[in-house]
Amino acid sequence: MSLRHAVLGVLAAREMTGYELSRFFDSSAGWLWSAGHSQIYPLLGKLVDEGLVTGSEGVRGEHLRRVSYRITEAGENELQRWVGTVHQAAPEKDPFWLQAVFLDQLEPPLARAVLTAYAETQREAAERAGAHAVELRAGRTPLVRERLSRRSEDEHHRITGLKAGVFAAQAAIATTRAEQAEALVELLGD
Amino acid sequence: MSLRHAVLGVLAAREMTGYELSRFFDSSAGWLWSAGHSQIYPLLGKLVDEGLVTGSEGVRGEHLRRVSYRITEAGENELQRWVGTVHQAAPEKDPFWLQAVFLDQLEPPLARAVLTAYAETQREAAERAGAHAVELRAGRTPLVRERLSRRSEDEHHRITGLKAGVFAAQAAIATTRAEQAEALVELLGD
DNA sequence: TGTTACATGTAAGCAGTTACATGATTTT
DNA sequence: AAAATCATGTAACTGCTTACATGTAACA
């Protein structure tokens, strides 16, 4: 149920084609959600059916069909309704910590390798998220610029601050994960 | 792919029926994985087919059929292979932080309500995980006891320490999530 | 006698991943 | 001329959730 609102949220910033949305959600830039194009295209059709977005066909070059999707007022309302709702969090399901709870069955050196590899990926994720927060705060990300262009000047600082705060939060959480994995290494013995 | 190894990991501690496994994974005790019984029963059948567990039929009372599942040597090997493998982490997909990145569209009081509600559930999750870590360290959880009974005395401290460490890590991560959500409240303005 | 716990399954549907399939346009 | 990028779809499969379905045993 989240992808539809992720798409609505992006389209609320600016009009996009399915291809552009696919790029945006392609496990790429360390954004907050990801999806393949095989999930995007059918979803856009459904969103059109529901009246939450409209698609306008155009062409690229002479023959290449491209459909640009824009959020409707109904779509904006639905997005706001969803954002303003307290959703109960699904029970945590992190494969790594499941794996970690069975690490006692391994030779300590192998267990250490598993833990440090995880810690490193989390350190990297933290760095990416932190860098993105800096970019956002400086107003250097294109999507936020477009979003700001339709808001009053005095809101700009608040908006970029909030969005940067979300990525700073991602960085802090990833850092805690790395630290905790490293703390487990100390308990390994040997 | 994780549920099969979660099940193998539990069965490595002791023999269980499908019903007991269902109880164990029923989103309950704040454990590390969850699944409904409709997922458990078919999976146990597959694991038997693959030779990773064996099921022995028995009865409860006069007529109630119950099958007790035990891990095989092949199952123990598969579990150890999985635990000793570095798996690349799937891209983060947390619906809450997706929601958070759109909070600028809300009236600050409503946004604050969403953030504090999340922070509170994370504080509660942290408390549950922390309490579980204490129980584990004290050796008061039944499953770990059975696990320890098949290990040498001098390993007991290391094993309980590691497992407790995993739940302490869960607590630390949940606490960071709560703190970060609370930090966002400060950026809300108004 | 009624309720709770024990016990085991199947079916429908949704979300998500990987693979299949095709073709135009731009860049090197 | 070849490769990368733009562009849009469908199909098969896996994992998971929710609902359907059935019946026994223990307890109050």
Automatic annotation (TrEMBL), chains A, B:
Top-level taxon of the source organism: Bacteria
SUPFAM superfamilies: Winged helix' DNA-binding domain
Pfam families, per database record: PadR
Gene3D superfamilies, A to Z: Winged helix-like DNA-binding domain superfamily/Winged helix DNA-binding domain
Domain Transcription regulator PadR N-terminal: 7-80
Protein name: PadR family transcriptional regulator
Organism: Enemella dayhoffiae
